[in-house]
Specification:
The complex is a heterodimer. By secondary structure, chain A is an alpha/beta fold. Chain A has a single domain, classed as Glutaconate Coenzyme A-transferase, CATH 3.40.1080. Helix content of chain A is 20%, strand content 27%. Chain A has six helices and eleven strands. In chain A, the strands form two sheets. In chain A, strands 1, 2, 3, 4, 8, 9, 10 and 11 form an eight-stranded mixed β-sheet that branches. In chain A, strands 5-7-6 form a three-stranded antiparallel β-sheet. The relative contact order of chain A is 0.19. Chain B is α/β, with parallel strands linked by helices. Chain B is globular and about 50 Å long. Chain B has one domain: Glutaconate Coenzyme A-transferase. The chains are: A alpha/beta, B alpha/beta. The interface between A and B is large, with 59 and 53 residues.
């Protein structure tokens, strides 16, 4: 059950051109910085990326975008990234925008063996085009299919050799659902500990969902909107 | 005429003790600053916070503690953190008592458009479609007219919809209105604003019944 890989290079082994990859994170919070940097270096192309956001111009998934490594983005919100907007409006980049709650649930369902579910979100909008509509309790719902990926890449605060993960603050966001939905799930953590060092009562992602784990380096943890109170 | 803070203050009057409230980005975020004294309200941020607090003191900002607008925030005592699926379970499952969000257009039927201008602005819907599809109580905070002076309260939305027949109340710099069968019912006027002016700025059907009181801010 020791899932520890030596470094980020070993962690991303097997990621090839044309694959579908999930990336945890909300904005720049809780994104797998080390793996994204390694994928930029590796130069894999034509990726379909499933991620709530697309980073900013010079950080996060924005780095893969700038390098033209992404063929398609599946996201809920992609503002704050000029290069993204340019590639999308010019037709270079395929984009599937889906409601945030549906994105989260589609990943969760993918990991939980539920092929599809009905949700009211998006009924009567262009999100509903081509989707089955059914009325429950007098209210229309649309059928949304689950999402899985060749690889899911998540970022946690602490993890152990078995792949058990604990997230910190709002860096949890999409990471737990995406960890469930990857055929191979890579977890990069700030602190890697021995089995037994994490309290089982407080594990967010049980190790069964994780195939590879390593301790990342030099986390920049960039803040997108620094808002403060003056003393 | 109200400014953005005035709109936020007026919406804050709609809060009730014990409510869980989701505030959208922009004017809605300001509502948190004007919770009536003594009232207990918990703010949900859909990226995974219940019990969101104020912005951090300078030097105490934490990259792992942000709100849905990606701004650094703090937690109040008794706050809870969770993942995005759980967050939208709260929203879809109607555990949130009030949703306040901005809009580019609202129709007299309660349709809302706030996520896309075809060919121009395509940022995405974020959590807005989930919120408007499930929330039982939605207040829209917006300007009555756009920068070109055109009404944003329409018979039919012209932009791609975020949700249909979902908006309950609208607070603008000019008025408080509610969606009823047949159109926008005018409830209150902003200080110094005439009913005629509000009528002129409302493209959709404006229902004026009796004397319209001035807002108390």
């Amino acid at each position: 059950m020791n899932k520890v890989v030596h470094d980020v290079q070993e962690a991303i082994q097997g990621i090839e051109n044309g694959m579908t990859i999930m990336f945890g994170g909300f904005g720049l919070c809780g994104i797998p910085e080390n793996c994204i940097a390694a994928l930029v270096r590796a130069g894999v192309r034509d990726l379909t990326c499933i991620s709530n956001n697309a980073g900013v111009d010079d950080f996060g998934l924005g780095l893969l975008l700038k390098n033209k490594q992404i063929k398609k983005m599946i996201s809920s919100y992609v503002g704050e990234n000029d290069e993204f907007e340019r590639q999308m409006l010019s037709g270079e980049l395929e984009v599937d925008l889906i409601p945030q709650g549906s994105l989260a649930e589609r990943c969760r369902a993918g990991g939980a063996g539920i092929p599809a579910f009905f949700t009211p979100a998006g009924y009567g909008t262009e999100v509903a085009h081509g989707k089955e509509v059914r009325i429950f309790n007098g209210k229309p719902h649309i059928l949304e299919s689950s999402l899985t990926a060749d690889f899911a890449i998540v970022k946690a605060w602490k993890g152990d050799h078995f792949g058990n993960l604990i997230y910190k603050g709002t860096a949890r966001n999409f990471n737990p659902m995406m960890a469930m939905a990857g055929k191979i799930t890579i977890a990069e953590v700030e602190i890697l500990v021995e089995p037994g060092d994490l309290d089982p009562n407080f594990i967010h992602t049980p190790g069964i969902f994780v195939q590879r784990i390593f301790q990342g380096e030099k986390y920049e943890k960039r803040i997108e909107q620094r808002t403060i109170r003056k003393r | 005429m109200l400014d953005k803070i005035g709109i936020a203050k007026r919406i804050a009057q709609e809060l009730r003790d014990g409510w869980y409230v989701n505030l959208g980005i922009g004017i809605p975020t300001l509502v948190a600053n004007y919770v009536p004294a003594g009232m207990k309200v918990e703010f949900q941020s859909e990226n995974g916070i219940l019990g969101m607090g104020a912005f951090p003191w300078e030097g105490e900002e934490d990259a792992d503690m942000i709100n849905a607008g990606k701004q650094t925030v703090t937690l109040k005592k008794g706050a809870a953190l969770f993942d995005s699926a759980n967050s939208f379970a709260m929203i879809r499952g109607q555990h949130i008592q009030l949703t306040v969000l901005g809009a580019m257009e609202v129709s007299e039927k309660g349709d809302i458009a706030n996520w896309k201008i075809p060919g121009k602005m395509v940022k995405g819907m974020g959590g807005a479609m989930d919120l408007v599809a499930s929330a039982e109580n939605i207040i829209v905070a917006m300007m009555h007219v756009n920068k070109a002076g055109e009404s944003k309260l329409l018979k039919e939305c012209t932009l791609p919809l975020t949700g249909t027949r979902c908006v309950k109340k609208i607070v603008t710099e000019l008025a408080v209105l509610e969606i009823v069968e047949g159109g926008f019912r005018l409830l209150e006027r902003a200080p110094g604003i005439s009913v005629e002016h509000i009528d002129k700025c409302t493209e959709g059907n404006l229902i004026i019944a009796g004397e319209i009181p001035e807002m108390k801010i």
